[in-house]
Amino acid sequence: MTLGDTNGELAAIAAAFELPGPILALEPLGNGNVNDSYLVVCDGAPLQRFVLQRLNRAVFAQPELVMANMMAVAEHVEARLTQGCDLLGERRWEHPRVLLSGAERRPWVERDGGFWRLISFIESSRSFDVVASAEQAREVGFGLGVFHHLISDLPTAGLADTLEGFHVTPRYLQHYDAVLARAPSVVGHGVLHCLAFVEERRDVASVLETARASGQLRLRPIHGDPKVNNVMMEVCSGRACALVDLDTVKPGLIHYDIGDCLRSCCNPLGEETAELEAVVFDVNLCREVLSGYLAAASGFLTTADYDHLYVAMRLISFELGLRFFTDHLAGNVYFRTDRPGHNLQRALVQFRLTESIEAQETQIRDLIAELRADLAGAS
């Protein structure tokens, strides 16, 4: 879709940033559940592309703090990369660059109640909604490990908690209870199944937060949403080269990141599938993701970190299912939907994935122990 009258307002917003040349084209980008995103193409040799996004203020109540976090992480990562990163060798790693507005010199523009930002597009790369191979799974894990490695020494005190309660599972359970208490009478096999599923696993919700409160786990900078399609793969090599969608960067437990990455990668059918009975957590893909992750991140993991990897996998699938189900009961106010019952279907997929993880607990724990032993033997 090239620029025209219907895109004039968007073009004006994009032009408020310090672009390198005139805008040639502007088109919708991606299928995110929260923000509106557009690809901006600018004239130049070569052409340069950027991502224009309107942050959802219903989700990010203080979007200026989101941008402050993004700028802090970008500055830190760029400094680490400039110093050199032994993990990468000759590999390419690129961090999204935030452009400033021309007038206010801020990393955002406000127009008619909308809060907009412009970031660099990761060229010669692509993302995938579903992992297609063992090699790709390993690269996704390695990408997350590199990201964690690069920000592992970034003090959390310098990051705002832009989404209080985000990836704090007991908070989601409290919200679920509040929504359920005021929801109209619920019927249907899927709803009843979800209600029973949550009740049977209430004690699961607090496992990581209890470990944090006891001092076993500590807060670190996290990505917050490292699902498979937020890891960019270099087109020519297939290697991970960037993590994108950094809105949710904040202090947290890296286990939420690891669990979310595994939840996303190890469900070959993806979270939008309608084939509930076929949903399974693929332990072979889990091996590849964890192998890639640990190759980059094992240097800063503690014994307690390893001990909580399995419960993180189970918890995050449960947590996301709980969030989808809560939103279904609330009338679909958070996640975008394109049909009635969409969030209920998403919840059922995540709960089925949780069951699959639980059924393979012994195999998964043995795998973690094996990978840890291999790393210890190689060091």
TrEMBL record:
InterPro entries cross-referenced by the UniProt entry: Aminoglycoside_PTrfase (IPR002575), Kinase-like_dom_sf (IPR011009), Pseudomonas-type_ThrB (IPR050249)
Record domain Aminoglycoside phosphotransferase: where: 26-274
A GO MF label: transferase activity
The UniProt record lists the keyword ATP-binding: no
EC number, as in UniProt: 2.7.1.-
Keyword Transferase annotated: yes
Superkingdom of origin organism: Bacteria
A Pfam family this chain is assigned to: APH
Keywords for the protein's UniProt record, in alphabetical order: Transferase
Name of the protein in question: Aminoglycoside phosphotransferase family protein
Protein source organism: Cyanobium gracile UHCC 0281
